[in-house]
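# nightly structure sweep
# worker-07 picked up a monomer target from the shared queue
# config: single-sequence mode, recycle default, output format = structure tokens
# input follows
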Amino acid sequence: MNFLVLGSGMISRPMIRYLLNQPDYRVTTATLSLDRAKQIINGHERGMAIYHDVTNLPETEKLVMAADIVVSLVPYQFHIDVANMCIKHRKHMVTTSYVRENMRALDEKAKEAGILLLNECGLDPGIDHMSAMRMIHDAHSKGGKVISFHSVCGALPAPEANNNPFGYKFSWSPQGVLIASRQSARWLEHGQEIKVNGPDLFANYHIHDVPKVGTFEDYPNRDSLPYRDAYGLQDAHTVYRGTLRLMGWCETLKTIADIGWLDESPLRDKTCKTYGDLTRYLLHAENEADAVTAVSKHTGLKPAASAMKRIEWLGLLSKDPLPENMESPIDYLHELTLRRLPLQEGDRDMVVMHHEFTIQYEDRTEERTSTLVDYGVSHDDTAVARTVTYPAAIATKMLAEGKLAMTGVRIPIYPEIYNPILDELEMDYGITFIERTLPKKPK
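# output follows
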């Protein structure tokens, strides 16, 4: 059995090593990060790393043709080309990315080809679906109706590694975090549909206490409404999916967004020399003496405000020179966050996922919770890498063993997918949810 893994970014190691540890499986890793891939494979006799640019479509197609199953860990915008190749050559495909409309449109073609395009099989999206569906199906099997569903997830530094003003370190692609910060959001709350546009995302957060874990900022994560139908929550008056961050994140990111640093449009004026220059340019405040004054006037923040201090610490107000060969503000911001907010060697990260359910039975109403806290291993795999790629790796093995008969474009909301994955995560890797039933309320 031959697996093709496209990409070998910050999270790929557990996936590649998992597949290599299965008997008789061969793994080809095709990536721009050849040195990283070779280090991961570490001379394994059934592993091969090759330099490859996924935008070279003829070469990508050759690699797809030679594989039995394809795992795509490249940025989401490249999945469609790969998916079409998989349909053409009848190869199953697994990704950890959200299903977008262009992927969903391939459902019938994938069914006709007899293949599975399994998406959202990572952490969030992924384990969130699986753990939620296990509890939702359990409630339904006992005659219960889920009338409220609230799910949040955050990838954060472990407490001992939380040593910068942002309360955040990048254990996965900074580009992915920054792009997600521009997304609009939609959810259902007490029967009312609420929509927030991208520029207002960080103005719409609340404080969320996760029992026995901590207190966080919770802001909405993309569009929650499709999951009302996907999860079978037609009785629910609240369906919300959110992102957890440590205190101060939302105000700071809102300031960064308000300045214009999340803009993906190429800059017209390339005369800016420093990060402070570009901040003043984005605010149309080139005549201001310094970037601190420009930001303070634009946002109303005092120079001593905590959000101002954070962006100053990051370097957005500094005389640090801008790197060359970049086009947009978000590109420059991406490079800066890589330098200033990395997960350092020896640091641990942590993943917190928390579901809250209100379940109505004939004679009572129950409040149930399900909580996952997972830590990375110092000098080894991060919690993000473990929780994102182990589910995809297990699903890939299940496909290779013929244990998944479904076809089309799917996400892991079915018992035949989520039960084996959640069981193996718990038994072999300690990735475990703690479920609690709160005191019952009389109907």
